[in-house]
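Shipment paperwork, digital attachment
Item: protein structure file
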Amino acid sequence: MRALNKHLLVLMLQKVGGMDGDNQSENSQFLLLGMSESPEQQQILFWMFLSMYLVTVVGNVLIILAISSDSRLHTPMYFFLANLSFTDLFFVTNTIPKMLVNLQSQNKAISYAGCLTQLYFLVSLVTLDNLILTVMAYDRYVAICHPLHYVTAMSPGLCVLLLCLCWGLSVLYGLLLTLLMTRVTFCGSQKIHYLFCEMYVLLRLACSNTHIIHTVLVATGCFIFLTPLGFTTTSYVRIVRTILQIPSASKKYKTFSTCASHLGVVSLFYGTLAVVYLQPLHSYSMKDSVATVMYAMVTPMMNPFIYSLRNKDMHGALGRLLGRPFQRLK
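Attachment content:
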């Protein structure tokens, strides 16, 4: 799937490279100016983002290694969690290294093809995060509401199939939006007062008519994000109903704790996306950079902590991986 993903992107960029007109000749690069042009603030941002990036990489790599090395975690829930950590790791690596280089360099340029490449992976990986979280909600629904059928309902073959569908839809959605951006003409200022190449920011720089693209963006975005959100919400409504029917308070707490981490991650993910994208294009401004940092950096950084905070199985796996007792966080 990753090889196909790379091959499709190469074909797309070859198409971009062969375009004629002002869009390609006059706007061969953009300037990523970031959140501030003050040297003092840039130094603060550099060390803050570098620290967040390192914590994100270490945390998600530990999650992946712990799950892959411990046979007791070879279950559907942890299978999807490992893939979520891989997606988050890929996601931050797509944006933060370039951001750190720009904060330390006088040359903040990014090529037109490089910007589209960054945009493609940004869209694809956010979509993949969204779909994996939805599949994980379904996994929790089956485990809690239909425990006797869990083994057959969440078979290894089905888990692989669901993951392949998530990757396929994400790749296609990323290609769709990126190919649409190749039809946009840019003129005037090429300065992007933002952290990376983002769809709404690029559309605001366009001098061609973006009404059709914006309509497609809203329509497809509603389908690809609101449909999974509705599915996740329905799953949790049924989970809550099932939990409320459990007579023992201790069993209620134990059952809910198996999905509390996922619910926290879902709330953080959709909450930050809603702040950034549930608004008209004309009202999109640089104040949204803070919310962008939340979903682009804070969410991937927090996911390993949320999933391992009160998870005994993960504590044990991490302890065995590190070769010493892993103290449970209080």
